[in-house]
Design goal:
By secondary structure, the chain is α/β, with parallel strands linked by helices. The chain has eight helices and eleven strands. It is elongated, with a radius of gyration of 23 Å. The N and C termini lie far apart (54 Å). It binds adenine.
């Protein structure tokens, strides 16, 4: 996969040289380049921002350097590269979106700073890219760079060969709509705390059931919104019994929290 990141702070993306993503780049699995937006300016001051039309606080990123940068890094329009614009005003980034983006031939990340990029850039870019404003969550960062670090890591680890054991992608949080079960390692007794006994039983069916129950309990406790999004056909008899105990009715539309008596 090819990834291009455009930013006025290329140094912010240095962590992409480390760990799994850094190794994937070295191994040629990921062709990732970071570009300085200011190198696409033409004035002496290398200006990238200006005051907003209509007034208001802050500055807006000028269209000209963005158009030059996107034209230079955009690759082949026929391949429909994806232009991701990190923004708190975007659609929410999810594991499902990470899987979808991992299928694209090229991702271009446009890191906005200040109040954002002139909207016309996104309209114009739609002729070449599949343009997607994307938000990490309902909070505001100073710019898109930190969001890009998160998204590149989430997408990059799904590319074939990047994660050594692909099994580890299957049993993790969000892969089946639930949070991951708790994990333990040696010693089996530590500071007076023993690991759950079933994990020593060697009974794989019992261990799988225990882990599934823990996933459901943890998700109901921390992310009840995810429980209500489970498809009823994904729930077996034991799941349904536990959800009932946790205060959910499972109907055709999926689990619904029972009103408190
Ligand atoms: N840029 C600023 N805030 C952001 C957020 N929450 N997600 C993605 N990009 C952002």
């Amino acid at each position: 996969m090819r990834i291009d990141v455009v930013s006025i702070f290329p140094e912010y993306l240095a962590p992409l040289e480390l760990s799994l993503i850094g190794k994937a780049r070295q191994d040629g699995l990921l062709d990732l380049k970071v570009h300085d937006l200011r190198s696409f300016t033409t004035d002496r001051h290398r200006t990238v921002d200006d005051t907003p039309y209509g007034g208001g606080a802050g500055m807006v990123m000028k269209p000209e350097p963005w158009a030059e940068a996107l034209a230079a890094v955009g690759g082949d329009a026929a391949a429909r590269p994806v232009l991701i614009v990190p923004s708190p005003a975007g659609e929410r980034f999810t594991q499902a979106m990470a899987y979808e983006l991992a299928e694209a031939p090229q991702l271009v990340f446009a890191c906005g700073r200040y109040e954002g990029i002139d909207e016309r850039v996104l309209e114009w870019a739609a002729g070449h890219f599949d343009v997607r404003p994307v938000s990490l969550g309902d909070y505001v960062l100073n710019g898109g760079e930190v969001a890009v670090l998160a998204m590149v890591e989430a997408v990059g680890r799904l590319l074939p060969g990047v994660v050594g054991n692909p099994e580890s992608l299957v049993e993790e949080s969000h892969s089946d709509g639930l949070l991951e079960y708790p994990v333990y390692t040696k010693p089996s007794s530590w500071r007076g705390r023993d690991i759950p006994e079933v994990l020593l039983s060697g009974n794989h069916a019992k261990i799988a059931r225990f882990r599934r129950d823990e996933q459901l309990r943890r998700t109901a406790d921390r992310r009840p919104d995810l429980i209500e999004r489970l498809a009823p056909e994904s729930l077996d008899k034991a799941d349904r019994a536990l959800l009932d105990e946790l205060g959910y009715d499972v109907a055709d539309g999926g689990p619904r929290r029972r009103a408190e008596a």
